[in-house]
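Practice problem: predict the structure.
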Amino acid sequence: MHNFKIALYLKQNRLKMKTVLSIAAVALFTFAFTSCKKDYTCTCTKTEAGTSKTTVYEKQMRNQTKPNAKATCQAFEDMLNVSHDGVAKCTY
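Answer:
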């Protein structure tokens, strides 16, 4: 009878441990694959070709991940450099 109680106790603890480990694994997985999204502002300064005239452009980016905001800002800079004479430099 005593051996049965020990075996039952160990089995219950093993079940509790598996439950705790399963919950911890799910929490870690969720945390690891959840991206932090926030608002960014892409600010571009464009200098007109042959002059010292500068123009500042801003593009609001809402609910973006950092890599996505960087790519969007780079695309905006590329668009400004292609569509107008001069040089644009953007930061986010």
